[in-house]
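May I ask for a protein sequence together with how it folds?
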Amino acid sequence: MTCPSAMPPSSTSPSTPHIIELPWQPPEQLFPLCRGEEKSVFLDSGGPAEQERHRWSFLCPRPAGHLTLPLEEIRHFPRHLRQFLAVHAPEEGPSSPWPDLPFTGGVIGLLSYEAGMAHEGLTSRHETDCPAFTALACRNLFIFDRLEQRLWWASADGSPPPDAPHIPTSPECRNPPITPAAEQNTSAWQDAVQTVRDYIAAGDIFQANLTMRWTAPRPENLDLHGLYERLRTACPAPFGAWFHTPGFTLLSASVERFLSLDHQGRIETRPIKGTCPVSPDPHQNDILKKTLRHDEKELAENLMITDLMRHDIGRVCQLGSVAVPQLFAVERFAHVHHLVSSVTGQLKTGQDAAALLAATIPPGSVTGAPKYRAMEIIDEVETSARGAYCGTFFRLGWGGDLDSAVIIRSISATGEHLRVGAGGGITYPSHPEREYKEMCLKAAPLLTVLHTYEH
């Protein structure tokens, strides 16, 4: 892409915000612009573009600002987030009407699982090298409409789009495969399932989401960009993401929307609970979906989390506005089917996206019910910090609109380690062996990507 044809109109001054349409290029052709940048972010929707959650992608190869907060400051993150958004917002409106696009710039960031614990007044016994809160200000970005194959460049300061990136030649494989090690063996994890069941039997909780992590040393010469390209090909997902900062990178293939908030104050959350495999045989696939749709344990698990999310968003919603328009829908993703519900509400006057995040983190689908006690038990029985896994990844637009995902199906990269997490909801009818198989089913595509990646 070059830019005489892609430059803003001559009447637009260099400092005036603008959006311009460019000739179509798919996101993967522009992702190499992130190579070599200290910070970059790519919200990467994969899968069938006909569905709204899969349609739009956003690429910011050079963010304008970076904010991090330690756990000690997490209770104040809504104030810091509002200030960070305001500091980087355009000083004046665009010179021409902006197209009806879902996101034209703002803040993209994440809140770790431990950040959610801390905001609820809990302290984890585990140490983590993941930032509690980190965010990037995105004033200049590409916007991709995968359905209509249209591309725009949005710039808050009137900058032209960068030239087309150089596509590097893939290096030959010279290193052994990356093989993450499970932090617990089969029997130890199944014992943890039984411990959770014992707490349920004693009346402490109704459900808890139990997870485990796989960890590998990060190879010194690892090409994270190449690894993400492989992940997005192997695991296309509606909430895929590349989020790169000094010292921490998230490579996400998340399938779960956490919260969305539009300009009219309408909220939606889509909790996922209930899983079964995908079969290449259509007849067998129908049997699997029917079985999932009528599985009493999976339905109960989904219902409890749906009710929890009704409570959480109700903290900031208008009285009587919370509804459940979808319950127990079976949706197909790249490697599994899930039971997905939808909870909606109308934001109260005086509340905003930061308040909505504060009222709901960490996501209910990865904690349990009651939420506070479930988090205490999770911290007791799990053997490591979750970090970014089970946290929240979000984009907050200049006008206050929000979309976010639960960080699942992801690879976290620090300076020294690569980590993958997986888990599932435990209720009293849970069978430890079955829960272990479900957890491994979720982790398998990510572990395969690491093990087969040529680096």
